[in-house]
Amino acid sequence: MNDHTSSITGRITIQGKPAPDIEISLLPQPYRSGWKTIATTRTDDDGRYRFAELPSNHYWLKVHAPRCVNSVEWDDEGPGRAVSVAYGQSVQNADLDLLPGGTITGRITDEDGRPIAGEYVELTLVDKLGPPDDPLDLIGEESDFTTDSTGTFRIHGIPQGRYRVSIGVEIAKVTGSRREWRGSSEPTGRVEDDHYYHQVFYPGVSDRAQARVIDISPGAEVNDINIKLGKAFRAFKASGQVIEAGNRKPVSNCRIRLSHWVRGRFNPCRMLDDPCSTDEAGAFTVQGLVPGRFSVSGYVEGESEFFCNPVTFEILDDDITELEIRAVRGVTLAGSVIVKETHTESIAPMLAQLRLQAVSPRRDGGGDFREGVVNPDGSFTIHGLPPGEVQVSLGYGDASNYFSIVRIEYPDKAGETSAIPIFPPSHPWNRFRLALPERGLIGVRIVLSYNNGSIRGNINVGPRELDPGHTPES
Amino acid sequence: MSGPASWIPGTRLKVRISRGAGQDRWSLIDANCNFFIDGLEPGEYAVSIDDGKVILLETDNVIVNKDSETLISLSLQADSNKTTD
Asked: Looking at CA atoms only, how far is residue A342 from chain B in angstroms?
C-alpha cells in the first residue's frame, strides 16, 4: 500500500526545551517488551523527528531517554506515547514533553554494618501511579535495583511521586499467613534465592505504616537511603525422581508442578521457573522453599500415556530429598466429532485446526491437561488421563471460536448410549464433565455447532479527526 | 444506545461483545476505526467500546443471524481538550 503510506512528525522536549539527538523507536502497539522495532530515528537540534512511509496502524513511540519520564502520564514502558495513523493520513505534532526522573541511592548492610550484595531493592508508590503496594518496575531502564559488592544501589528515572523503599521478602505474602494479600503476588511458599531476609522498610522498620515516605520531584536526587537488614534465613530444596510405576524406569522431560498448602488447601504455584523439568535420570530439584507443606507432581508433555500422582512433603528446617513421583499409565478417551446442520466438507479447513482438551482435576489443586487433535474424518484420541472426572472442552486457538459443544454422547456401563444434558451455549467455557471409568472411554461422540455469524463495525469519530495531529495528505 | 461519549484521541480502543454470562469476545479497533468479529453463534449481543479504562459507549440488541454478517456503526466524540501526551 505504498500509495497510501503515512508519516509521523513531532518534537521531543525536556521541560519545554528541545531534546536533541535522542533516539526514537517506532513499535507496534499494544507494545510488549521484546517486540521488533519497526523504525528508528534521532531528533534534530530542535528536538524534531520524522518517520515516513508508514502503513496505517497503531504505534508506540518509544523515546530512549532512560533517565527521563513522561511529564503528564507515566507509562511503565518508559518515556513514550501512543500514535494512531489512519489510512492515507499523516500525524503531525506527535510531541512529547519529558521530565528528568528522580534518583534514589543508598546502601544495604547487615546488623554488623557489612555490605549485602546482590539483593533487590523495591520502590513502592504510596499514593499515585499504578496499583498501590505493587513494586515500581522501570522496564528497560538503566536503573540498578540490585545492590553491588559494596551494598550500594542507585535507581534512576523515577517518576515524580511518593515512595517507600524496602528490601527483603514480605514473608506473610509468600506463606499466605496473612489472609489479605496485597499486590499481585501468590502465596507460593517460595523465594527467588537460597536465602532470604525479612522485609525492612527505610529507615529500618518492618511495619509498612512506619516506613518513611520519600518525595521524588523531577530531577531530584535523594541519597543515603541506607537500610540495615536482620539475619539471613535459609531457603530449602526438595529433590527427587519421577519414575514409571511398575518398571521404575526414569521419566525425563517431565514438568514439575508444585503446590503450596495455604489455609486448608493446596494452592498451585503457577510460576515454577527454575529447574522445572526432570533430567535424563528423571531427577528434579525445586529450590527456594520456605518452611511449610507442599505437594509436588509431574506432567509428561506431548502425547504421553502417563499421568503422575502427586507427593506431599513438609519443609521444617532442612532440605527434602528422595521424593518419588510415580508416573502411571492413564486411560484413553476416544471418539469422533460431528458438526450438526453443516456440511462438514465446507468447513474442513476449520475443523482440521480444531483441538480438544481434557482436564483432570488433581487432588493437590489445578488440573492435568491433555490435548488431542481432531482428524480430518472427525476422530480424536486423548491418552494418559487418570480415571475419574474429566472436563472436556474445545482447545484454545482461532478455530475454537467457530464451534461450540452442544452435546456429548457416550456408551454407558450397559453399552447403551447416554447423553450429557445440554448446557446452554452461553455457559462459561462451554465445558462438559465426563466420568472416565478405569477402562477408559471409547466411542464418545462430541456434537458441535458451527458459529459463522459476524459483526462488522465502524466508529464515527466526531467532531475531530482521529488524532489532533492528523491532517489528510493528498 | 448510550453516547456519543468522549474519547481522548490516540488512546487505543477495544470493542467487546457479550451474550449471556461468560460469553465475551473482544477485538482491538484498527487505526481506521473499523472492527470485525466472527465465529459468533446466532443471537442477540451487547456491544461496548472501551479505552482500557472506561466504557465509552454501549449498545445492545445487536442481532446476529446464522450465515450472515451484521453491520453496525457507532458514534464517538473526540475530547477536544485532551490528548495522550
From this structure: 11
Give the separation between CA A133 and CA A127, rounded to whole angstroms. 9
Residues of A in contact with B69 (CB under 8 A): 453-456
Across the interface, whether the CB atoms of A460 and B75 are under 8 A apart is answered yes
Instruction: With cut-offs at 50, 70 and 90, classify the pLDDT of residue A271.
Output: low
Helix (H) or strand (E) holding B33: none
User: A81 contacts in B (CB within 8 Å)?
Assistant: 10, 84-85
Cα distances (Å, whole numbers) of residue A375 to A258, A330, A340, A361, A369: 34, 22, 17, 26, 20
Which one of A84, A93, A404, A449 would you mutate to disrupt binding with B, by most B Cβ within 10 Å of its Cβ? Answer: A84
How many Cβ atoms sit within 10 Å of the Cβ of residue A39?
14
Distance between CA atoms of residues A58 and A174, nearest Å: 39
pTM: 0.76
How would you label A249-258 residue by residue, b for 16+ Cβ within 10 Å and e otherwise? ebbeebbbbb
Judge: B33–A458 Cβ closer than 8 Å, yes or no: yes
Q: Say if residues A361 and A389 touch (Cβ distance below 8 Å).
A: yes
Q: What is the CA radius of gyration of chain B?
A: 13
- At A273-302, the pLDDT tens digits run 555 889 999 999 999 999 999 999 998 877
Contact B23 A457 (CB under 8 A): no
pLDDT tens digit sequence for A334-363: 999 988 877 767 787 788 888 898 988 877
* Chain position carrying cell 537500610: A227
The top-scoring range by mean pLDDT among A17-26, A454-463, B41-50 is A17-26
Alpha carbons B29 and B18: distance in angstroms, whole number: 16
Of A72, A75, A129, A61, nearest in space to A99 by CA:
A72
Contact B12 A58 (CB under 8 A): yes
- The SS3 assignment for B30 reads coil
Average pLDDT, stretch A309-322? Answer: 95
CB contact under 8 A, B32 and A87: yes
CA distances from A432 to A5, A356, A447, A459 (A): 49, 12, 12, 38
